[in-house]
């Protein structure tokens, strides 16, 4: 549902890379099981392709053209996730890059003139769940603006943007590079049971320089925290 909502940067509404392409990442995780797609293009719901990778392939992660071909084999039809919002974001990015039409010049301008952490968006969507004592997590993103073709953030990396085990589930959003460097979700998961889960999250993100948000649950707690505005929701059948 969140991937289909154009207000989010995931699935429909995903941002362009500086070459004009839209490459999305998504992952799903259960205790002992994982599936992800990296830089996948022209599908409506990357998270469903990631689930197919987990359930119907011998692999954990598929990327690029190979991920697209697998999606077609699994019945996921061609879909253009571009929206007016993403086109405007692309125009803004090109203005920052002096609107170079040549890719080499764009990359040079990107490296020399753009403050990556200043302009990166952090509109990743994610969910964690607990059902009959079992945990699951999923996370999806259209990346960030601006970004180079082939850039991979934290979303498809287990332990970075997602981690699920028998003790709980954790997903994160923010500057992917910073989340990866901190192995954020795994570090939080490893500390489940070490006092309040909320306090653990606060401690783990206290040193972050960029925006970061976390949702997590254990057998006893459902918590969330962000150092910028982040929409969250909780649904209980209990």
**Helix proportion of residues, in percent?**
25-40%
Structural class: alpha+beta
Query: Strand order, biggest sheet?
Result: 3-2-1-5-4
Alpha-carbon Rg, integer:
18 Å
Topology as H/E string?
EEHEHHHHEEEEHHHEE
Provide the residue-averaged pLDDT.
89
> How many strand units?
9
Characterize the structure shown:
- Strand 8 (212-218) and strand 9 (222-226) form a beta hairpin.
- The protein is α+β, with helices and mostly antiparallel strands and 238 residues long.
- The protein is globular and about 55 Å long.
- Helices cover 30% and strands 24% of the residues.
- The longest helix is centred in the middle third of the chain and has 13 residues, at 84-96.
Question: What's this entry about, in short?
Answer:
With 238 residues, the chain is of the alpha+beta class.
Secondary-structure blueprint:
Blueprint: E1 24-30, E2 33-40, H1 46-56, E3 61-63, H2 64-73, H3 84-96, H4 103-113, H5 116-119, E4 125-131, E5 134-141, E6 162-165, E7 168-174, H6 176-182, H7 184-190, H8 197-205, E8 212-218, E9 222-226
Parallel strand pairs: 2-3
Antiparallel strand pairs: 1-2, 1-5, 4-5, 6-7, 7-8, 8-9
């Amino acid at each position: 549902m969140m991937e289909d909502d154009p207000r989010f940067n995931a699935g429909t509404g995903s941002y362009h890379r500086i070459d004009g392409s839209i490459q999305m990442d998504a992952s799903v995780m259960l205790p002992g099981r994982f599936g992800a797609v990296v830089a996948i293009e022209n599908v409506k719901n990357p998270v469903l392709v990631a689930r197919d990778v987990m359930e119907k392939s011998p692999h954990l992660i598929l990327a690029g053209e190979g991920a697209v071909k697998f999606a077609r084999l699994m019945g996921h039809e061609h879909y253009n996730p571009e929206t007016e919002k993403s086109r405007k974001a692309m125009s803004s990015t090109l203005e920052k890059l002096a609107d170079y039409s040549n890719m080499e010049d764009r990359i040079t301008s990107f490296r020399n003139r753009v403050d990556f952490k200043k302009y990166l968006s952090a509109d990743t969507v994610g969910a964690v769940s607990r059902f009959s004592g079992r945990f699951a997590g999923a996370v999806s993103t259209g990346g960030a603006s601006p970004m180079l073709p082939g850039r991979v953030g934290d979303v498809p990396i287990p332990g970075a943007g997602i981690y699920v085990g028998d003790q709980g589930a954790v997903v994160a959003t923010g500057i992917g590079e910073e989340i990866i460097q901190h192995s954020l979700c795994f570090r939080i998961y490893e500390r489940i049971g070490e006092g309040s889960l909320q306090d653990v999250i606060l401690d783990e993100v206290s040193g972050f320089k960029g925006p970061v948000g976390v949702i997590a649950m254990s057998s006893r707690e459902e918590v969330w925290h962000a150092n910028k505005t982040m929409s969250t929701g909780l649904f209980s059948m209990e």
